[in-house]
Amino acid sequence: MQFKRKHWITLVKILVPTVILILLISWITPEQRQALYEQPKDYGLLLAALLLSLVALSVSITRWCCLVRCQGIKLSLIEAHRLGMIGYLLNFVSAGTVGGDFFKAIFLARQCPGHRVQAITSVVVDRALGLYGLLLLALAAFTFGGDIGAGQVSDELRQLRIMTAVLAGVGAVGLAVLVFGGRLVDRLLDSLAKLPVIGSLTVKAVSPVRQYSEHPWTLSLSLILSLGVHSLLSASLFLIAISLYDDAPTLVQHMIIVPISMLAGALPISPAGLGVFEATFNAMYEVVPSEPTLASGTIIALFYLLIRILIAFLGTVFYWTAGDDVRESIQEAETDADSTAEAPTGN
Questions:
Q1: Which candidate, 127, 131, 112, places its Cα nearest to that of 64?
Q2: Predicted TM-score (pTM) of this structure
Q3: Ramachandran region of residue 152, left (φ > 0), alpha (ψ -120 to 50) or beta?
Q4: Alpha-carbon distance 241 to 246, whole Å?
Q5: Which of 169, 189, 262, 272 could form a disulfide with 91 if both were Cys (CB 3.0 to 4.6 A apart)?
Q6: Over the range 272-285, which residues count as b (16 or more CB within 10 Å of their CB) and which as e?
Q7: How many CA atoms lie within 13 A of 243 on its CB side?
């Protein structure tokens, strides 16, 4: 039986994070294992880290709900949390075939016929604001965090800070054009609409994004919520670190380590960033602290992975209590994903 292209894609998406995680575990030094074994654990702080991660997820879902409503789609906060928790679960169990964002967009499109583009737009803008929030938090920590790194490593971090500042500046320009572009952007869209083939498609894709210019306060609130989400996640990983080690990096240093690691994890390499986030987190743990530490970035990242899995497990409760509309949306998303994977490609 022919092994379909979608099966190869799924296999690769399973193997990539698995290989990375195995390599990371093999790189844990005996000294780090001994330090973890001898260090008393604070399970109260680990529980607090779990709760902070749950709050961060709730704030993230609330941000998406606000952006959905700006598109004229009715969505209650309770329903948004139900979809958000199921989407979080799908990021883990679907091997990347049907991600949580794809599921949410399909579900909204089914519930609101004629609003498919708007549903997709809400998910894309939500993801973009989330990534921009990571950049802003890292830039703030770079700016106000004092001395970080040492020697040549410090020079590398300064280059990383410059790159972060440039990307944040580009994002600021994009937001300014989105909110304040007004007639200039509208005239540009009118000109694009006259182009053959791509003109109408471009206008159809960009017009819902332009709708956010009518909701500047909601867009500003969404950006603030993004900063809140990533601050909470940074604090969660910091609590994990100090619950396991006495000489863990500071909270401010985690506000550099965590956003950069999550930006790497957002790359479409593996489902839910598995393996990529952990590898980047471990690398940042070796360069950001100004003083050497026995704290293992790999071990801390793996504890955070356990927390993510526990939260995803909560998503199963929402899935098993969901109605047929949710399961039908997942099935439709799988069908769309399969069609894309099996589509012939030209040379």
A1: 127
A2: 0.81
A3: alpha
A4: 8
A5: 272
A6: bbbbbbbbbbbbbb
A7: 19
